[in-house]
Amino acid sequence: MDDVTAPSQAGQLERADGPRLAFVRSAGLAPEIVFLGGWASTMSGTKSLFLEAHARRLGHAFTRFDYRGHGASDGRFEDATIGDWLDDTLAVLDAVVRHPFVLVGSSMGAWLMLLAALARPDRLRGLVGIAAAPDFTTRLLEPALTAAQRESLEREGLVALPSAYGDPVPLRPRFLEEGARHALLGAPIAIGRPVHLLHGQDDADVPWQLSLELAARLKAPHVTLELVKDGDHRLSRPSDLRRIMHALDHVLEDAL
Question: From the candidates 60, 182, 199, 233, which is the catalytic residue?
């Protein structure tokens, strides 16, 4: 059993078949809480650190990490795909996370949490999705490309997409093509554990209706969809963080 009094441990997951991944793990009790960040975000965001502190108060183990090409992990962002980041997630679940787990996914991280849940159902205890963006490559990203951006992708194999949260995000055609192979919303999604989804209705990046569609597709014992009337995509205000905390608490209660 983990020593619940031990401090968080930062580490590097070395792999023969992929880039080195940076992670931080806090020891504690099961189920372990694992945070999956969004597209071009890092493991040191507001929600991740808030939930880590909450997990420590509860005595639960907690793991956060950077996908390849993100934050402190190796690799180039523009060379990676959804499948690559799913491989990273599964590697962390298999080699770093020691307990059955509850996955908390933000935006793209909620897509990855669903894929990981389907790949590792035996250890899964529940899901919390924040502004979930499953299938965003085909549902949101590709349809929004301008004619000039499409021409740049075809001619140069790369386009830099403007971001409201920082530097432009590089995009290659392979990212769109490979993302389509991981689409989930076209069929029922069998998750045998409780799921709690939160989505802001003022989300300018991922429409809240996507979470509504996801909730309808999920085949799970309990699915809760919580809409935040004035919430944006980040859901990082103190009131939003409390909502996410309570959602996690409810899933943990059902998981025990």
Answer: 233
233 included as an active-site residue: yes
Q: Which amino acid belongs to residue 156? A: E
Tally of CB atoms within 10 A around 245? 19
Is 232's pLDDT higher than 80? Answer: yes
Among candidate residues 203, 205, 211, 240, the one labeled active-site is 203
Give yes or no: 54 in active site.
Answer: no
What pLDDT is attached to residue 137?
Answer: 97
Beta strands in the chain (DSSP E): 9-15, 18-26, 29-36, 60-65, 101-106, 124-130, 159-163, 166-171, 189-190, 195-200, 218-219, 223-228
pTM, whole model, 2 decimals? Answer: 0.96
Q: Is 203 one of the annotated active-site residues of the chain?
A: yes
Question: Domain limits of the chain?
Answer: 9-134+183-255
Buried b (16+ CB within 10 A) or exposed e, 104-113: bbbbbbbbbb
Instruction: Say how far apart CA 36 and CA 227 lie, in whole Å.
Output: 20
Most distant CA pair in the chain, distance: 56
Six-digit token string for 160:
């830099």
pLDDT tens, 47-101?
A: 999 999 999 999 999 999 999 999 999 999 999 999 999 999 999 999 999 999 9
CA distances, 221 to each of 64, 117, 190 (Å): 27, 14, 10
Q: Domain 9-134+183-255: which CATH class?
A: alpha beta
Q: Spot the catalytic one: 107, 196, 199, 211.
A: 107
40 Cβ contact partners less than 8 Å away, ≥ 6 residues apart? 70, 77, 163, 165, 166, 169
